[in-house]
DNA sequence: ATAAAGGCCACCC
DNA sequence: GGGTGGCCTTTAT
């Protein structure tokens, strides 16, 4: 999938959230990543891996403003995820799951018209670059199990509880 | 071009 | 509970 549209003023920054410190990657075209790295170093590595040859400007103040909008005011900024057509269609489907609700991997597969691609759906959801805003945490297994989560299962649990309370 | 690895599921025991 | 085989996309050989 490596074919990046040019980003206008690529930037990133770190900010606190109810689920730990996150790293937000954004440009004038929207947010292209929101991750929960274990350390700054792993954030840099991740960034370098996802956006090779791109040099980012660090802007924590903007990241903090974004985080406040997202996690405190419940706003949803413009998103600019990068992926294959298959992945994009799945990430779009995720955004149709209302907060406080869940869907299963099989239901997502059904929703994009590929009922047999359940396994691939799981993989694509795991590749979601924009945590929380593309709510991959709302997808669970058909048998009721939590399934997996890129940033740790208790993080997934926290996000679900957090949304249920509202 | 091919292999291997996945945030799955249905089905069996 | 657990193991197996099939399913489909992506990434790394």
CATH class of the largest domain: Mainly Alpha
Give the low-confidence spans.
none
CATH-wise, what's the superfamily of the largest domain? Winged helix-like DNA-binding domain superfamily/Winged helix DNA-binding domain
- How large is the count of helical segments? 6
Rg, alpha carbons: 15 Å
Architecture overview:
The chain has 166 residues and is an alpha/beta fold. It folds into 2 domains: 62 residues, Double Stranded RNA Binding Domain (2-Layer Sandwich), CATH 3.30.160; 81 residues, Orthogonal Bundle (Arc Repressor Mutant, subunit A), CATH 1.10.10.10. The chain contains 6 helices and 6 strands. The strands form 2 sheets. The chain has a 4-stranded mixed sheet with strand order 3-2-1-4, covered by helices on one side. Strand 1 and strand 2 form a beta hairpin. The protein is globular and about 45 Å long. It starts with 10 loop residues before the first strand and ends with a helix. The protein binds a DNA duplex (13 and 13 nucleotides) through helix 4, helix 5 and strand 6.
Key phrases:
166 residues; alpha/beta; Double Stranded RNA Binding Domain; Arc Repressor Mutant, subunit A; 2 domains; 4-stranded mixed beta sheet; two-stranded parallel ribbon; 38% helix; DNA-binding
A few lines on this structure:
Helices cover 38% and strands 16% of the residues.
List the helices and strands and how they pair.
Elements: E1 11-17, E2 20-27, E3 30-35, H1 40-50, E4 57-58, H2 60-72, H3 85-94, E5 103-104, H4 105-111, H5 118-126, E6 139-140, H6 153-165
Parallel strand pairs: 1-4, 5-6
Antiparallel strand pairs: 1-2, 2-3
Helix pairs in contact: 4-5
The structure holds a DNA duplex (13 and 13 nucleotides).
């Amino acid at each position: 999938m490596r074919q990046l549209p040019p980003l206008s003023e690529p930037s990133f920054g770190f900010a606190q959230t109810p689920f730990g410190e996150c790293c937000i990657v954004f440009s004038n075209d929207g947010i292209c990543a929101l991750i929960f790295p274990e350390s700054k170093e792993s954030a840099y590595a991740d960034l370098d891996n996802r956006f090779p040859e791109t040099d980012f400007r660090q802007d924590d103040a903007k990241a903090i403003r974004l985080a406040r909008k997202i996690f405190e005011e419940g706003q949803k900024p413009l998103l600019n995820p990068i992926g294959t057509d298959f992945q994009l269609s799945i990430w779009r489907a995720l955004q149709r799951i209302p907060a406080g609700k869940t869907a299963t991997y099989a239901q997502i597969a059904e929703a994009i018209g590929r009922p047999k691609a359940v396994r691939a759906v799981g993989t694509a959801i795991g590749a979601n670059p924009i945590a929380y805003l593309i709510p991959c945490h709302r997808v669970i297994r058909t048998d009721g199990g939590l399934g997996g989560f890129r940033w740790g299962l208790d993080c997934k649990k926290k996000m679900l509880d957090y949304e249920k309370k509202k």
